Amino acid sequence: MKRGLMAVLMLALAVPVPALAWWSQDWQYRRKVTLDASAVAGLKETLHRVPVLVRLHGGTVDFTQFKPDGSDIRFVAADDKTPLNFHVERFDPAAEIALIWVDVPELVAGKPREIWMYYGGNGTAANNASASFDGEQALVLHFGEANGIPADLTANRNKVSVAGVAPVVDGVVAGGLALKPGSQIHIDPSQSLSIQPGGQMTWSAWLKSDLEAGAADTVIYTKFGSGDEASPDRLTLGTRGGLPYIRVGAAEAAARTPLTPGTWAHLAITADDKQVILYVNGSEMARLTGGLPALGGAEVIGGYGETPGFAGTVDEVGRANTARSASFLAVQAQSQGPLSRFSTVAATAEQRGTESVGYARILVGALTPDAWLIIALLALMAGVSWVVMASKAQLISRTLAANRKFLKALRQAVIAPDGAKALAELPLGKDVPASTLGRIFTAAQEELGLRLGEARRLGNGGLLVPEAVAMVRAMLDATRVEEEQRLSRRMVLLTIAISGGPFLGLLGTVIGVMITFAGVAAAGEVNITAIAPGIAAALVATVAGLAVAIPALFGYNYLNSRLDEVADSHDVFAEELEKRIADSYRPGGSLTSPAR
């Protein structure tokens, strides 16, 4: 059915889109991914090796074209030659959502960058989380683990433990962890996380606070010196009255704008030998002069000891052994959020071995299973309606031809000297079995024979009284109604197609639009290229409904006009036959005029 529909759509909508070089012939499909650096406020320099989040959802891509586990996904640079490292945080074809981190070699301020996503191949999984980050990245926590225990995705494999936390599905990217004041995420000390005096570091995370502004001190993040809580040396990120602050020893600096409860915010700390800076949503909010002391202890997200911790949800925690630039943090803050327009996946999939991809392929490729179900029902309805129209047209044509043949035979019989006998005895109707007039005549003839026999028994000499003629007319009318009902049988299927087809199509469109917007909301990507294919594909169901109804409407009206023609001939024939019988079998009657 998909092939048939695609063929029809190709004839109507095939507008070519050029295809370019192909990275590998082992992959069937590719889509262009555009990274719009001009959309990032604060990106003022060229960045190298930036992990970028690419969101896929059912409104953008057809998940049936991927392998069930997504292992056929590959990313290639704009030159269509250089494979890019990446890892998949989530691939859920049932929910039609995929979240993929790609190691982009370079982002230039103010300039869009394009990369290719290939899929539909038979290769094994190329997931490589540790290679997706530069060598300075010491810790990455996505919080997408099924067991709820975070795992470091870098090559360092730092040990992480949790207490009092609860996994949530609505993190800023995929899953997250919900923390209460007594909750804790503990990262053990390691060489990869150790900071030398005056050393560089960056810590970042997405946070959604559950506390109202004005609440007491809470601790978000602490980097301890050797000895952990017993050490006086530590770096602390916390909130006081909803205002985030950083503290090193006795020195403290706070932002002037509080965090908004219930809203995701990107918080980051950078440090070098001259300063420690707090960023909120990619913008500098507080600064301390001077570097960090030696910090070789554990790292804790949440409270410790008697110190209450942050209450809310945390996602995408990262630690690097370099002071990331303000531009780097601006990209993180403005590209990872659910409303980001930084990365855009092309609405059109290019297919290997074709020189062009028509609009029809886009529409068919974006159809969801429920849309295919609706279209299948409409196809069945269309098939039934076309069979009814064809069979009825053939039946009516055959009936009209047979009626003409019967009337010709009747005309020849009744103009003979014994025409009255022909009315009562000759099997003219049975000689033309396809004629409705013949069957009406046969029924009237049988009733006439009964009435003539009764008249002879009563001594009327084979003449009919008006009551007997009325009985013959009643038989004429009854048979005429039966014949017209037989001819109209199954015409109701056409009215069902006319009235039900558009509504079924509208149902498919509404469901498709709902699924498209649900996928957009779940993936967090809002742009016209994300929703256009899904909406366009959803409208295919409406077009299919109209394609069922319009031919059925024309066919119904045409067939009704032909049925009216047959019915009119029945009325005229019944009227004339009654008068002819009454005239032929009354006292002194004679058969003087031929049937028409």
From TrEMBL:
The chain crosses the membrane at residues 371-389, 492-518, 530-554. It is a multi-pass membrane protein. Residues 471-568 form the MotA/TolQ/ExbB proton channel domain. It comes from the Bacteria. The keyword Cell membrane applies. Keywords: Cell membrane, Membrane, Protein transport, Signal, Transmembrane, Transmembrane helix, Transport. PANTHER family: PROTEIN TOLQ, TOL-PAL SYSTEM PROTEIN TOLQ. Belongs to the exbB/tolQ family. This is DUF2341 domain-containing protein. It comes from Sphingomonas hengshuiensis.
